Inverse folding.
């Protein structure tokens, strides 16, 4: 089976996507799959790499070397890449952020009629927009933090909204990830600068109440038979002096660590898993999601954000969670591909014992 791994992209999470793709390409089982890298440069150029990469450990530099850009316009490169995508048996879009995780590439693959791993157009687009996500989850009775939406360059937060949200507060782009453009505001005098930073990533900005408590992630995996599995809870511990789990803490600070399973009461763990699967179903997800929670006061779950294609390096939360659950990185990819094949109406190859548990 030929699997095209698409990565890179025009978003601020380009580098994170390349790192995820390196993990995916390294761990795809060459006895099952012929792997082909397809890179989207930061300028939007699509570059098709060689067919049937041999097994081995690949880094970002290796993937970039295998997909040299020709500096042609994005539209021209896409016409050249379309045959490689259209003839693949499966596309795995290891993309994060706008122009990839937001339903745009998924829509292209739908038009081409190519099966792909993960969430569809609607769920990807909705989950990318934190404001829309919060509204849908709240309408379904799922707990979210209080927030206010700022749209347009002249929109400001009125005093009554400041009083409602309280301090500290968080300011974030509504349609970005990896904590890009996110600020913690301790005084309202800091708000304008925080909003300006967020608007560098998105014209739509959220101001949220700060939920003080533990930060816990739940990974949800869809199996080929439609069964949803919520992995053990992961607690994030930031140790590098950052005021929150920002971009540096996520990708650059060795002091950040994950505790899996988090030391939680069994009842809280079960409730977090139930809520995460509720998020999956409410947003109409497919394949996988990671739901990031806060535990207000250490016990009350609040949905913070939803990731429709979370980070996928070997050190990322999602693969680590299922590694602890007994599913290796390679077996995890097998499940995701088999589930995507079933969704496309095709028969997957039998899974290994660990993946098919």
């Amino acid at each position: 089976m030929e699997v095209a791994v698409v990565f890179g992209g025009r978003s601020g999470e380009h580098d994170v996507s390349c790192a995820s793709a390196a993990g995916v390409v390294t761990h795809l089982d060459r006895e099952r799959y012929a792997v082909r890298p397809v890179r989207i440069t930061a300028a939007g150029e699509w570059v098709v790499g060689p067919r049937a990469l041999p097994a081995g450990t690949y880094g970002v530099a290796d993937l970039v070397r295998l997909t040299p850009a020709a500096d042609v316009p994005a539209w021209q490169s896409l016409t050249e890449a379309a045959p490689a995508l259209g003839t693949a048996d499966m596309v795995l879009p290891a993309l994060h952020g706008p122009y990839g995780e937001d339903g745009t590439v998924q829509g292209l693959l739908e038009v081409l009629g190519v099966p792909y791993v993960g969430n569809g157009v609607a769920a990807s687009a909705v989950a990318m927009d934190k404001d829309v996500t919060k509204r849908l989850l709240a309408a379904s009775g799922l707990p979210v933090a209080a927030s206010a939406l700022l749209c347009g360059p002249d929109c400001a937060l009125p005093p009554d909204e400041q009083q409602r949200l309280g301090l500290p507060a968080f300011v974030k782009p509504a349609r970005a990830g990896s904590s890009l453009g996110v600020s913690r505001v301790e005084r309202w005098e800091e708000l304008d600068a925080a909003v300006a930073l967020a608007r560098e990533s998105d014209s739509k900005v959220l101001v949220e109440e700060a939920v003080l408590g533990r930060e816990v992630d739940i990974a949800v995996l869809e199996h080929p038979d439609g069964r949803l599995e919520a992995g053990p809870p992961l607690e994030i511990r930031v140790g590098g002096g950052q005021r929150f789990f920002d971009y540096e803490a996520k990708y650059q600070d060795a002091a950040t660590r994950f505790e899996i399973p988090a030391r939680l009461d069994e009842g809280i763990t079960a409730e977090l898993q139930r809520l995460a699967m509720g998020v999956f179903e409410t947003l109409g997800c497919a394949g996988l999601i990671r739901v990031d929670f806060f535990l207000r006061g250490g016990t009350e779950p609040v949905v913070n954000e939803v990731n429709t294609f979370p980070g996928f390096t070997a050190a990322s939360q999602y693969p680590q969670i299922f590694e602890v659950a007994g599913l290796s990185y390679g077996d995890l990819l097998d499940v995701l591909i088999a589930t995507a094949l079933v969704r496309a109406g095709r028969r997957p190859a039998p899974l290994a014992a660990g993946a098919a548990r």
